[in-house]
Each structure stands twice: as C-alpha cells, then as structure tokens.
Amino acid sequence: MAATKPEHDDERWSQDVTEHSDALDLEDDVFTWDDPARIAASLKRSAEASERRKGTPYQSAMSMLTFYLNRAGDNLPESRRRTLEQAKDELRAAFSR
C-alpha cells in the first residue's frame, strides 16, 4: 500500500509541540529572539516554574531548545542556528553545568 501524504495539520506536529508543550509554558516567539542570554533565561524560568515536567528543570529547558534546533533542520538560517547554539551555552551556565 502506498504511503499517503499527511493532512496539513499533521505536517507541523513539531510546531504544535513547541507552541503547546505539555512540560513548559514558553514565552511567545522565544526562539526568534536575538539575545542568547535572554532565550536561556526565559527557558530556565519556564522550566523552573513548570510542575508538569518529568525531568529536572535543566533537562526540560535543554530538551526543548535541542528539539527546536533539530526539528528546524536545514530550514534554519546559519545565524539563527548560531544564536540558538549560544543559548545552549548560556543555559548550561545558568544552571551551573
């Protein structure tokens, strides 16, 4: 049986996860900000405030950032990827890792 193309709503499941995470309540457009320290601070606040996360605040925050980077793939401009990779470093520092 031939594979069928997913419905439009299913095509963007990763966007839905990012926008409606069960573990974290993210600030609007957090991954579009230009300041890596601001991104990291926001993710840290969200992770520490969440009572729905399964792991530690550090694990939840880093997982969400990594998930976004991985799902964006080649569609992410190099400058945005650099900013988000720097946000990972900032997040490690914020959690003393």
Question: What are its keywords?
Answer:
97 residues, mainly alpha, 5 helices
Uncertain regions spanning at least 5 consecutive residues: none
Shape, please? Answer: globular
Judged by helices, strands and strand pairing, the structural class is mainly alpha
Residue-averaged pLDDT, rounded?
Answer: 84
| Number of strand segments | 0
**Distance linking N and C termini:** 49 Å
- Estimate percent helicity: 55-70%
How much is the radius of gyration in Å? 15 Å
Strand content: under 5%
Q: What is the tally of helical segments?
A: 5
Topology as H/E string? HHHHH
Q: How can the largest sheet be summarized?
A: none
Strands, helices and their partners?
Elements: H1 8-11, H2 13-19, H3 36-49, H4 57-72, H5 78-94
Helix pairs in contact: 3-4, 3-5, 4-5
